[in-house]
Design brief:
With 532 residues, the chain is an alpha/beta fold. The chain is built from 19 helices and 19 strands. It has helices spanning 22-40, 56-64, 69-86, 100-115, 179-187, 201-212, 241-246, 248-251, 261-266, 279-292, 324-331, 333-343, 354-383, 396-418, 422-443, 445-451, 453-474, 479-488, 527-530; strands at residues 7-10, 14-15, 45-52, 93-96, 125-135, 140-142, 148-149, 155-156, 164-173, 198-199, 218-219, 221-222, 230-231, 234-239, 271-275, 301-304, 307-309, 312-313, 350-352. The strands form five sheets. Strands 1, 2, 3, 4, 10, 15 and 16 form a seven-stranded parallel beta sheet that branches. It binds ligand ME8.
Length: 532
């Protein structure tokens, strides 16, 4: 979709019991690329990330560290803020669930859910006693039938986490009454407005069959610990951490001030990006809570897959957690950003391996793209007096090649804005990168230098124009490297958005060019470094 409609995109807010790892970096990276893409496409964007700071898991982690919970969350939250800087995310806000604005929003949401009746005319929330299994690690309740037996006879949740028996007074949300409304919500294919409400399709099928099955009322408050947001008018209860956490998305949009410009502009959110493990919370509980409060559900939830490390599940106990700071230091930020979105079809699981990062950095970034720019710019520098040359008349081959570069944005836009197929978008872009290399190889400007210097100039200009298109379109993925490439091309800094694609804002002949420098280094495949 093009046009100027506002776009609100969110990452999950991260639990502050942990340090940032590659999984956290991945979800937010996908959002960042989408946010940058939408801005370059002329849309007003609000990109939110932040930290999820309440609940039993965080309370336990603080206690284990011998710290007061607030002091603990203040410190750990900063690590996630640092991640946003490290990864060069362009988030517009960083929300913390311990902030007053959020506590206010949660309590108001609760009140509204209480004030409204369910579609079956019943109270949405009622007080009872919860007796059942709870996993602190997942912050989730499980039915007996979902559990398996561990090695020592302990009960294990489908996620692999252990569960404990919980019995305490609790408020319940009448989830079952919202089944029909939820099914209608999943059926909306959103063809004119950003796609289906749950994506990819396999995930939509998964939640649909969950909701068609037996739906238990959801326990939404806890009484056996205190690190959470008090339930309005009943201080003995704190809200279930997922109800609290999910509400962050409307807090940041200005709720409960629904008359605010921000709320009117950005709610409902266009896209909640999540990992597949938290699909149910976002596509069942969250829309049901919102509908019960009389608010609109998000337009779309996209669940991506999980990363393994060199074939193994990533876990603290295996000691194979990948710290984004380490790989950024080793390979460079834009190389990591490119790799994470290129390596795996977005939505599928994928494996991180040093060999794969090296291969892609060397062959696709250094060889295919970096060399292309370096060769063309060096020839211009040497043979055209370090200025963007004035091209002569275009040949048929020039026209066809430039037309392919100019058409690229249309197919890339479809893959990114509507399908979140980042890998497909990169495949399409790289097809043009390869076409550009083919063009230069075929036209042989180094031969033309002697035989037909005027034609050489045209060839170099056409190649530079194609590189400008590629660098503009790649900006969301690799902002710093593309900015450097556009600087080297002498592309005006206010002509780098998608409206500048096409011939009207073409590179200006006569522009002085700096000495070209390689943008993407080649990595030596050092066995010691890869551990292979
Ligand atoms: O779930 N590969 O927070 P979180 C890919 N606080 N993604 C991974 C991953 C991996 N190996 N490991 C984790 C929470 N993730 C809640 C969210 S939102 C209202 C509350 C992803 O810190 C995971 O799928 O445990 C999730 O999207 C994100 O990291 C946050 O995980």
């Amino acid at each position: 979709m093009t046009g100027k409609a506002a776009y609100y995109i969110t990452t999950p807010i991260y639990y502050v019991n942990d340090s940032p790892h590659i999984g956290h970096a991945y979800t937010s990276l996908a959002c960042d690329v989408l946010a940058r893409f939408m801005r370059l496409d002329g849309r007003e964007v609000f990109f939110l990330t932040g930290t999820d700071e309440h609940g039993q898991k965080v309370e336990k982690s603080a206690a284990a560290a011998g710290r007061d919970p607030k002091e603990f969350v203040d410190e750990v939250s900063e690590r996630f803020r640092a991640l946003t800087k490290l990864m060069n995310y362009s988030n517009d806000d960083f929300i913390r669930t311990t902030e007053d604005r959020h506590i206010r929003a949660c309590q108001e949401l609760w009140r509204r859910i209480v004030a409204n009746k369910s579609p079956k005319g019943r109270e949405n929330i009622y007080l009872d006693t919860y007796g059942g299994w709870y996993s602190v690690r997942d912050e989730a309740f499980y039915g007996e039938a979902e559990l398996t037996k561990g090695a020592d006879g302990e009960k294990i949740a489908p996620s692999g986490a252990t569960v404990e028996w919980v019995e305490e007074p609790s408020y319940f949300f009448r989830l079952e009454d919202w089944r029909e409304r939820l099914l209608e919500y999943y059926a909306d294919d959103g063809a004119s407005d950003g796609g289906a409400s749950v994506a990819p399709d396999s995930r939509r099928n998964e939640v649909e069959s969950f909701v068609k099955g037996e739906l238990f009322d959801l326990s939404i408050s806890r009484t056996s610990f205190s690190w959470g947001i008090p339930v309005p008018d009943d201080d003995d209860h704190i809200m279930y951490v997922w109800l609290d956490a999910l509400t962050n998305y409307i807090t940041a949009a200005g709720f409960p001030n629904e008359d605010s410009e921000k709320y009117k502009t950005f709610w409902p959110a266009n896209l909640h990006m999540v990992g597949k493990d938290i699909l149910r919370f976002h596509t069942v509980y969250w829309p049901a809570f919102l509908m019960a409060a009389g608010l609109e559900p998000p337009k779309r939830v996209f669940a991506h897959g999980w990363w393994t490390n060199e074939g193994e599940k990533i876990s603290k106990s295996l000691g194979n957690v990948i710290d984004p700071a380490d790989i950024v230091e080793q390979y460079g930020l834009d190389q990591v950003r490119y790799f994470l979105l290129r390596e795996v079809p977005f939505g599928n699981d994928g494996d991180f391996s040093h060999r794969a990062v090296l291969l892609r950095s060397n062959s696709e970034l250094a060889n295919d793209f970096g060399n292309l720019a370096q060769r063309v710019l060096s020839m211009i520098h040497k043979n055209c007096d370090a200025q963007m040359p004035q091209p002569g008349e275009y040949s048929q081959a020039d026209k066809e090649f430039l037309a392919a570069a100019e058409a690229l944005i249309t197919s890339v836009r479809l893959e990114i804005s509507e399908k979140q197929s980042f890998h497909e978008a990169l495949t399409l872009i790289w097809a043009v990168v390869r076409q550009a290399n083919g063009y230069v190889a075929e036209q042989e400007p180094w031969v033309l230098r002697k035989s037909d210097p005027a034609r050489m100039v045209t060839v170099l200009y056409v190649a530079a124009e194609a590189i400008r298109h590629l660098a503009i379109i790649c900006q969301p993925f690799m902002p710093d490297s593309c900015a450097r490439m556009l600087d080297q091309l002498g592309a005006s800094s206010d002509k780098r958005d998608f409206t500048s694609l096409g011939p009207d804002d073409a590179l200006l002949p006569g522009t002085r060019l700096p000495e070209p420098e390689p943008i993407f280094p080649r990595f030596i495949n050092d066995d010691a470094k890869t551990g292979e």
